[in-house]
Amino acid sequence: MIFYRVFSRAFFVAMLPLLLVVPASTAEKQDLENQFIGDDVFGSEVLGNDVRPSYYRVSDVGDDGSLKIRVEPVAGAEVIGEYALEAGPIEILKIENGWGYVIAGEGNAWVNMAHLREIPVPKVGNSYLPQGLVCAGTEPFWYSEISGEEITYSRLDDAGLNFSITEAGGFDGRSGPNSFVQAIGASGDNGPDSVMYAIVSGRQCSDGMSDRNYGWWVNLLITSPRGTSAVEGCCSLR
């Protein structure tokens, strides 16, 4: 049942560009998008900010030599951490009134964007995804890393699987930051007959268990000699 629900949602996300080709009003298109990729998602919670994260480096700092990480987007707010000069890439989930929203510890916090400069990061194939994404989910607990050439995947009840990326790109016909990755089994008992598909969206996402929000939401569909399974979760660049 879980597989069906994840795969169905992933399928409709992939099919949405075709559906939106049919002439429709702006309101009708928005309603259709909300129906298939809206906020009501099982497991991880998609928070609806349909903008992929951007990446920055600390370009200048204050007299004490660091950029402060604050609990609120206000200059006098409590400091809970800091970035050194030239630290980066720093993943910015959103920007509000000159402040960037970042992952910090077990939650999120804010940094002053005046001290940051945007930088390019290597992408996975032709997708929007930065190389080095770390993804995870709960119920079941799983962990995955997406590099430029491979995807690793493991669960608490699994020794782990390795997949070589064969294709990666963005969704045709959509302005949203959605990407796909296809990979085949690289070694061991998952072998070349195993396939993984990842659909990753640039949307703020919560794992449902912590106070931390992430910038990427992912669905994975894995087929191997062990069977077929599907999971969903959140990702960040670390």
Question: How would you explain this protein's 3D organization?
Answer:
The chain has 238 residues and is mainly beta. The protein folds into 2 domains: 1-52 and 122-238, no CATH class; 54-118, SH3 Domains (SH3 type barrels, Roll), CATH 2.30.30. It is 13% helix and 44% strand. The protein has helices at 2-19, 26-37, and strands at 45-46, 54-58, 66-70, 79-84, 90-92, 94-96, 99-104, 107-112, 116-118, 133-137, 142-146, 150-155, 161-170, 178-185, 195-201, 205-206, 213-214, 216-224, 227-237. It has an 8-stranded antiparallel beta barrel with strand order 10-11-12-13-14-15-18-19. A 3-stranded antiparallel β-sheet has the order 1-16-17, with no helix packed on it. Helix 1 runs antiparallel to helix 2. The radius of gyration is 19 Å and the shape is elongated.
